[in-house]
Task: structure prediction
Amino acid sequence: MTRLTALWQASPLRVVGALFALSLAAMMGVASGASFTSQSANAGNVVAAGNLQQSNSVNGAFLTVSGLKPGASQSGSTTITNTGDLTGVFTLSKANLVNSDTANPFSSKLDLVVDDLGDPAASPAPAPITRYTGKLGAMGTIALGNLAAGAVHRYRFTVTFPDGGAGGADNAYKGDDVTVDYVWDAVNA
Result:
């Protein structure tokens, strides 16, 4: 006979009490907060807004034409650089168009071609992309596409006074002039 059996036969109530006390002690040991913990941190997180900026190589007019006769053309150019750190969706538009002769607006007679010459430092030079062909006064907003941060594009503007023919067909435009502003806009892509 084992000692536990002998104890049980002598005093079953004491054995049950002892077992209860041991169970209670075991539960208190578990509930005492003895547990494992772990922690990890990612400190110093930063969120910063991007920057969309551009620079224009010419401050003011880049297309100044005088003495233009029927059948002749002249050009001017400017270079636009995305100096920000975001890709921009660039557009070109005209503003403040003023014709000296409102009865015969010179802007309705003149032909305008806007060519994107790409990066002037590229070798070999990229093939020009014509962005606009039409009357100077009819030009609306022109999509120039996405320019990545640091991208550089030169734009050439060629204005032509179309020859209306012999016999003074273009006399109505003698001495006329037109002024126009060109506006380069960018929004983040």
Q: What stands out?
A: The mean pLDDT is 88. The beta strands are 54-56, 73-82, 88-99, 111-118, 129-135, 142-147, 152-160, 178-188.
